[in-house]
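**User:** My hope is that you can spare some time for a protein that puzzles me. I have put the entry right below:
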Amino acid sequence: MSFGIHIPFIEHIGFELVEFEGGRSAVQYRPLPEHLNIFGKVHGGVLMTLMDTTMAAAARSVQTDHGAITIEMKTSFFRPAEGKALLRGEGKLLHRTRTMAFVEATIFDDAGHSCAHATGTFKYAPLPPKP
């Protein structure tokens, strides 16, 4: 499944969209060695990027002709995400207005444990013209 838009950074990291409908999204990701911290766990910045991407996808799933720009994000880390585990971000649109989306996301490891959670506010913006 495609994000429906070209996002070079997300393509570079290797995120895969697996659910995108009705205010819900899921993004899968298998960490690469260069995405780990000194403890061999997935770097927190990568986890935050996964949650940001998952939340934006949940927001966009109800308005695909617009992008979703992050306004704010609050993150809580529960447990380390192992470096070899397949991770799954699950997003849910909680509320929306004409121009804003309020969303949450949780990252789960391949054993089903929640590793991190975030809430965020996103602004809908028209997509740029295709080149």
Summary: The chain has one domain: 8-126.
